[in-house]
Amino acid sequence: MNVLINAGPWLEVPPPGYGGIENVVATLVPALRERGVRVILASVGASDLEVDELLSVYDTGQFGDLQKPYNQVMGIAHAHQARLVEELRRRDDVDLVHDHLEVVGPAVLSAFDGPPVLHTLHWDLRKHPAFYGSFPQSIAVNGVSESQLRRAPEALRDAALGAVHLATPLAGRDVRAERGEHFVVMGRVCRLKGQHVAARVCQKLGLPLVLAGPVSGLGTQADLETVTQDPYHPLHGHPDVRYHADVVAPYLDGDMVRWIGAVGGQERDDLYASARAALFPIQWDEPGGTAVVEALALGVPPVGLRRGCLPEIVEHGRTGLLADTEEELAEWLLRVDEIDPEECRREARRRFSPSVMAERYLELYERTISRSRSRRGSA
Ligand code: UDP
Q1: Which of 61, 115, 325, 345 could form a disulfide with 299 if both were Cys (CB 3.0 to 4.6 A apart)?
Q2: Residue 278's beta-bridge partner residues?
């Protein structure tokens, strides 16, 4: 089977640091190729994931521009997607397109009579009500958690082929015998991820906290300062930049509560694997939770608020701790050593491994292809 996987133009695959969708694609592709699938990856030129063919418009990831005003950057996703359609027009050996590009992916592909398309919905499905409320029927979709699909507009929820949980590689990642004292929030710095709640709770309890992740695409203190010091920079008043400056920064003391910017590769794994727990004080219904699954794979207990996909991924008391309130979250932070790291790891192997995800997607690819055949047959 020849599958064109569209990871979009935002970041390399695998991403150098932050990158939810790109990490998922980097996990899925090797497992599909092991199962005999030929993969054509649409991404950016700098992607170095091993694939059969790489398709790109941009040499490097365009993530830095993603937060700029729409009228300045709308051409990026469209240029990428137009190239992908051009490629599909040029050849007839692609059996299926597995698309991961938000809105532009399905909008453009639905207007082209090409191979069957499966589009994975990685996002909060209340986000684009007009689009998701009348989603193009020629495109098959899947979600990344049951809770995400439950919140989708009815028509989209009914059309979805199901939810496929996210996964992360287990090989080369072990449960560390020696752990540090620090707690970690690994994710974009923004109100939805709740870094301020983690900081407030850890500060109150006197526990060390490390916040890792970009602020509106900015991965270092220096990059952030360039933006905050230039009132005319397009990101100057961005809500995430304001959130960092006004809500998170007051907790940062360079010692007990630290923001270290975006981290990647081995540095990320070392920081994460040596943590006492991974915190998810989420202020929204997190749709997929790559960072939650990664914590389990490293044997680091996830501790978070009971919202979105968290109760689906974490079993309270066995593979992590879930709270309904900030006060309860504080209680669980003091009891986190009751969770067995090996149990977290076993759960990751059983439910969130690359093989489990690849088998599920192969099943959905078959269903997408037969759905497309029967739609064509009845047209
Ligand atoms: N991440 C990273 N470095 C950072 C912060 C995050 O590599 O400094 C990764 C994290 O490990 C996860 C992804 O970025 O793989 C975040 O994905 P998640 O689904 O948690 O968040 P979202 O996609 O909503 O931003």
Answers
A1: 345
A2: 184, 302
